[in-house]
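Page 37, top half.
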Amino acid sequence: MTLIAPSILSANFATLGEDIKEVEQAGADWIHIDVMDGHFVPNLTFGPVVVNAIRPYTKLTFDVHLMIEQPERYITAFAQAGADRITVHAEACVHLHRVVHMIREAGLPAGVALNPATPVNVLENVLDDLDLVLIMTVNPGFGGQAFIPQSIAKLRALRTLLQSSGRTDIHVQVDGGINTQTSAMVREAGANVLVAGSSVFTQKDRTAAIAALR
């Protein structure tokens, strides 16, 4: 089953709670929350206070993606604010194994994200502790970017790694440039969780938009 996780980076911030309600009613599975610090990526977005503020608007899973330096400083805060799962970047963690275990100790499923230029073999020593791997299909930092075609080969390499490791239960998530054309390609290559921003939130018929991505 393909899960659709609309990214609130493309929502209307003035009516964020209502936008989240609408995509839930339209059939979204998770709500993806892109947290950026202006250091690891060149943009600033949300903190734990925003996550706490929107938590009452939906019962959907809050999929928090920390695009920040030293994410270990904020894992507890996001968990307490209402995150249901947390993903950190391998590139942002000096001690990735330790950070993954911090997420698990907070009682949440742990994910690791990889930037476009980061090979999948960096995951080999933490696979046993992961619930999700996020393949960035654009360079992180801004919504609305074009899909990087080389991501398909990377997804296939990840699928091979998961199969050889006996961890085919791990969610494979993609984020960046996902639309009705690219969704079919990434699903064929092994992705089962699709993060979509503008291709959901900017559409008049969000139910049809979500259905088209599956």
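Page 37, bottom half:
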Amino acid sequence: MALTGNIPGKGKLIAVIGDEDTCVGFLLGGIGEVNRAKNPNLNFLVVDRNTVTSEIEDTFRAFLKRGDIDIILINQNIAERVRHVIDVHKDPIPAVLEIPSKDNPYDPSKDSIMRRARGVLGGD
């Protein structure tokens, strides 16, 4: 899925860091992108029980640096593993959105964006 960015004629991507079910669902929905110009740069990372935290951190940081990604979707339970990296990111683009997984429901109290919004709006 390419979003219209602020560069005329150039689409922007959604990246996904999630479990297999989440990634497959979004890939079937059309978000998959492979840049074959130099090296295959995927816009998704499938995380399983064998995925080390440093790989998630490195992938997240790489997505932040890519100019063709406007949104990063990450399963909230995976976001908890790299919370320290997510909380450092303050820029509006790429937007980082935490989403539920099949086995882990969404908890707004853990979401970095929701905590920031509560702080700005003076909520509980």
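Margin note: Confidence is low (pLDDT under 50) at residues 1-9.
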